[in-house]
Design brief:
InterPro entries: Transposase_17 (IPR002686), Transposase_17_sf (IPR036515). This is Transposase IS200-like domain-containing protein. One of its GO terms (molecular function) is transposase activity. Residues 8-137 form the Transposase IS200-like domain. The structure is a single chain. It is built from six helices and six strands. By secondary structure, it is α+β, with helices and mostly antiparallel strands. It has a single domain (12-203), classed as Transposase IS200-like (Alpha-Beta Plaits, 2-Layer Sandwich). A hairpin with a 2-residue loop joins strand 2 and strand 3 (58-65). Helix 1 (29-42) runs antiparallel to helix 2 (86-104) and helix 5 packs across helix 6 (178-187). It is globular. The protein starts with 11 loop residues before the first strand and ends in a 17-residue tail after the last helix. The model is unreliable at 78-82 (pLDDT under 50).
Length: 204
């Protein structure tokens, strides 16, 4: 895991985590929705989200940390501005989810293998292929025969016209529009060889 990499304003990151010992994180459809609600509560105000996928025992997000001005707390002691740690917000997210799951399913102990791993996205090629990779993950892991049928990723949310916190227009513009977005996903389906050189072992 990329423990030494801090989440810095304006930079793009692949963030990810998995269940401890590959334990299932999401036992029921409601669990997926609850995790996304917590993500919205703890993280969405501090990062712009371009893609995500939740799988039974691991999760992936492609984000950009917002500018420092957007991360400042105004109401703090001595009227001094203070930066919120995005890492801390992500830790709150994982802790809140783990506590709820432990209580709901009468389990104890560590739910996640580690805090969110992170790797900076430093090229346009990595950014593009990472979106493919995130959306194709359920098919890659044999959970479903067609990634488009997986309900817990951002693939369809980006195509939808309903309200979303995703950076939908930015993603569609990046690919050249809705049709190009769909066509390029189709053309690159399961093309994991093009993304693997960019990934660390624990991102796979």
């Amino acid at each position: 895991m990329q423990k030494s990499v801090s989440l810095e304003p304006n930079k793009y990151y692949h963030i990810y985590t998995r269940g401890n010992n590959k334990e299932t994180l999401f036992r029921h459809p409601d669990n997926y929705h609850f995790f996304l609600q917590l993500y919205k509560k703890y993280a969405a105000s501090f990062v712009d989200t371009f893609a995500y996928c939740l799988l039974p025992n691991h999760v992936h997000f492609l984000v950009q940390v917002k500018q420092e001005e957007a991360l400042k707390l105004q109401a703090v002691p001595e009227n001094s501005a203070k930066l919120i740690s995005v890492q801390r917000q992500l830790a709150h997210l994982l802790n809140a989810y783990a506590n709820t799951i432990n209580n709901r399913y009468d389990r104890a102990g560590r739910l996640f293998q580690h805090r969110f791993g992170r790797k900076e996205v430093t090229s346009e090629a990595y950014f593009t292929r990472l979106i493919y990779y995130i959306h194709f993950n359920p098919q890659h892991h044999g959970l479903i025969s067609d990634f488009k049928a997986w309900p817990y990723s951002s693939y369809h949310s980006i195509l939808s016209k309903s309200k979303t916190a995703l950076q939908r227009e930015e993603v569609l513009t990046w690919f050249g529009g809705r049709e190009a977005y769909q066509q390029q996903h189709k053309e690159h389906a399961n093309d994991f060889k093009t993304i693997s050189p960019f990934l660390e072992q624990d991102e796979l």
